Amino acid sequence: MRHAFRIQCLTAGALILIGVLLAACTPVDLNSPIAKFDTGVNPEAWATVPAGEFLSGQQNDPVTIRYDYEIMVTDVTVSQYVAFLNAALADGTLKLDGEQVTGFYPGDKFHAAKLGLNHAIDCVAAGSSDSNHLYFCRSLPVFIEPEF
Question: Exposed e or buried b for every residue in 65-80, given b needs 16+ CB within 10 A?
């Protein structure tokens, strides 16, 4: 009796697992709109990080930054980066040469991808990122600042 109950439980579990796996194999609609969520956070806001001591790196080494600095409260989004590009193109800081945006730093080759306008920018070349920060009159974070 006990053995038969175990077999029934294993069979039921196997059927449930197969059902879940089959349901997970449905195709994804790549043309569906990207979900929007209101987090209540202003993506244009900056926060001041006060001078002081903090732990840095994997070894938690004590480090002191002797000045306050500002950092955005969110990652730079695609729409924010597009706003930078459009403003810099409009005032001549950057130029459009065919399909390439050029300026002090010409940037890396762009590989198009479908991203939402509020997707975080996570693959901007160092020079492009520097231009974005400097264009909007913000100083660039030094090596240690983003860890704070």
Answer: beeebeebeeebbeeb
Please give the Cα distance from 69 to 101 (Å, whole number). 30
Percent of the chain past pLDDT 90, that is, above it, reads 9
| DSSP letter for each residue of the chain | -HHHHHHHHHHHHHHHHHHHHHHTTSPP-TTSPPP----S--TT-EEEEPSEEEEETTTTEEEEE-S-EEEESSPPBHHHHHHHHHHHHHTTSSEEETTEEESSS--PPP------TTSBP----HHHHHHHHHHTT-PPPPTTGGG-
Residue type at 5? F
pLDDT reading at 41 higher than 60:
yes
Partners of 25 in the β-ladder: none
CB 135 within 8 A of CB 87: yes
Residue scoring higher pLDDT (11 or 5) = 11
Q: What pLDDT shows up at residue 62?
A: 92
